[in-house]
Amino acid sequence: SAQVPPYTETCVHGTYPPKPDRKVPEYIINLDLPPSQRWNQLAFDKRNEIRSIIGAFKGFLDDFGLLPKEVIYLLDLLGPVLVDTLPQPFRDEIRGISNATGIEIGEITLYNIFYELFTV
Amino acid sequence: CTSVIAESPTGKLYHARNLDFGLFMGWDIKNRTWYITEKLRPAIVNLNWQRGGKTVFKSVNYAGYLGILTGVSPGKFTLSMNERFKLDGGYIGIIDLILTGKGMWMGFLTRNTMETAQSFSEAKKMLTSKQMIAPAYFILGGNQSREACVITRNRELNGTDIWQMADAGGWYILETNYDHWVAPLFIDDRRTPANKCMRNMKQKGAGIAGLFDVLSSKPVLNKLTTYTALMQVNSGHLETWLQYCEDPCVPW
Fold first, then answer.
1. For residue range A26-65, what is the model confidence (pLDDT) as tens digits?
2. b/e for B208-218, b at 16 or more Cβ within 10 A?
3. Chain B closest-CA separation from residue A91 CA (Å)
4. In angstroms, rounded to a whole number, what is the distance separating the alpha carbons of residues B110 and B125?
């Protein structure tokens, strides 16, 4: 089902526009609101998706021995302290997302620094 | 990831990108998909960041992620970020942050840039003047003819490289996940196919539809691709399409 590398290109034409069901929804983030309230609507609407991604990240980090279950437990425990190390407004925005989704602060923090963990 | 900025014959700049994520993070043998990639797709949203009821900038985000990976500041500049893999990467940066307090999280740096920079040159300055926790490629477009570049960042400020569109071949500049001065890994060469499709399209095809075609061509489009975003700086236009790579399709 896949070509052996190195791959050769197949330049396609006429693919635009794709079917409308591939368009993504739009939300307004009101920067005039306090940081803790900016993400309320979006975080609530997408809480299951966010939970699912974080669950998958944690599974991956655990599988590779990068962040064992014990560290995740510690992360949940120390989340409120950990988030205080981040600059504003990100600190309060993470608190707001945590409140809106019911997901632990430490796990939302982990999600937001995943790029740095992944680039190794 | 693949990011490209192209200039139309009328001098308009178009910025497009594929966001690929989830390599080696669980392969679903039955459906031939990457586990995390499939989880990310339903969380993709377009955000319109407003102050005083007016748009400050627009971005494409995974819900719950506060940083910016793709964004347009209408009339000013466009930005996308591609991952840069390096041994001196995130973990060392995090230890450095704990020990010395130096370093900025990538997503927060791009967010600050989108919120505060008032021009291409100001954005370029912000993206090149802060120590980071992990290396990255920033693909930055302005609002003037040929105003586009790829910034290759180390964690630290030494070794920053700025590659201008004029030096990249004239009417477009393209970046995947390799330093532009070295050849990509032969099993992960999206650069050569993307360049070939750009040249096939020619400058007269540079626009939303043409760039979408290039980014929908395999292996530029692959099993890791979650979305294609298309931006035009002058109008502040941003549109995002979920991407799926039907078999036969390369895993990355």
1. 999 999 999 999 999 999 999 999 999 999 888 877 777 7
2. bebbbbbbbbb
3. 10
4. 12
Tracing tokens 């600190």 back to the chain, one arrives at A91
Q: How far is B45 from chain A (nearest CA, A)?
A: 5
The pLDDT value recorded for residue B143 is 98
Q: Does A88 touch chain B (CB under 8 A)?
A: no
Closest chain B residue to A24, measured at CA: B45
Locate B39 and state its tokens: 């989880």
Q: Is the dihedral of CA A107, A108, A113, A117 positive or negative?
A: positive
* Sign of CA pseudo-dihedral B246, B247, B251, B252: negative
What is the average pLDDT across B162-168? Answer: 96
* List of residues 6+ apart from B151 with CB closer than 8 A: B124, B127, B128, B137, B138, B139, B140, B160, B161, B162, B163
Identity of the amino acid at B50:
Q
Cα B153 from chain centroid (whole Å): 13
> In degrees to the nearest 10, what's the CA dihedral of B220, B221, B222, B224?
100
Residues B66, A95 contacting (CB under 8 angstroms): no
- Tokens (6 digits) for B47: 């955000």
